[in-house]
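Input.
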Amino acid sequence: MEKKSKKLKKEKNSLYSTITSCRICKSSDLKTFLKFGDMPLAGGFIKKEELAKEKQFPLTVVFCERCKETQILETVSSTTLFKDYRFVSSTTETLSNHFIQYAKTMKERFIEKNSLVVEFGSNDGVLLKPFNDLGIKAIGVEPAKNIALLARKKGCKVINDFFNSKTAKEIKKKYGNASLICANNVFAHIDDMHEPMKGIKLLLKEEGIFVFEVHYLIDLLEQFQFDMIYHEHMMHHSLTSLSYLLNLFDMEIFDILRIPIHAGSIRVYAQNKKKGKENIQESVYKLFNLEKSRKIDHLSTLIKFGEDTYKKRDSLIKLVKNLKSQGKRIVGYGASGRATVHINFCKFDNKTIEYVVDASHERQGRLIPGMHIPILPPDKFKEDKPDFAILFAYNYFEEVMKKETNFIKNGGRFIVPLPEPKIIEP
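Output.
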């Protein structure tokens, strides 16, 4: 009893908690296949005066044998992760255009006159504003105060909170039931997956539609995107595991679309099983079959990915060390969570990567977590003319290549870290 009480005390005072059961199905049959060691928060871009407060946490990736969900063991509190968040969706033209078209698609397929749309994890209004521009009544739910403020400045209606059953009840009481609920690039960030699902069931009309986008596990595995695995991304979804989750709440997936956003995502369409009016599309069956053929529901597939991750990291370290030995100057391009993972996993300091350039004002003047490399505005990159830039934002490759033609014409070269580290020649 004495040992048990000490253990409980330690867990209570800990800066993070470690799950012992799956976030979706509650099974304790979790198998570890990848360990990153101690890592900082990927989105924890800090100021110099905050360095003494910075924390690092273990990062361990596991596979659930029952529902086939991939997830991390360690849970940092949502308040720590998202109350001061620095990812702004509207920074890139690619994302902005994607969500403009998204809003048009939703209007054409599902939205009628006077319909209420609710989006949780609404960020800076990248989807809310297109809805508003189309004359659609849309309400956002966003926990990051600074990001919610950006959306409000665009004229969007935003509730600064986490989406759960309590928030859902408040929205329902004030505005009525929603015809459409959206959640984009947010399902990976949630520790208690059941709570937002309860909120959706409370708020959504019986015949309503739930649409969400998530980074797709097949793309993560096949393109070796280990840089998408960090504390803010607690889960990495497949159609198989998502279907298991929705089924627990008497919901079903009736359509699915693979999309290129974030180097490989899926848009999932769901409805209530009994009251939903949509027919299940062939796309759903095809993707189920693809997942079976790629064996992403097999532990051996994940173990192989874990082994390859270390090899990819070592290849990037070798390439960068070789260039530095030749006296080449190297910077980073894109201060994203991906950048944080690569820089810390490879232990690149500011002598190796002098700075990271980023277009977001939310990050400029801050430091890459962990290794404390400065984040500077694009003007510095244009004036400075380094020899090489590691393109951490490789998911926006085409957009960056068009934007940085002068860098390339002047002899500068980009290094793409994944799926295989390589120098991009003109």
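The mean pLDDT is 92.
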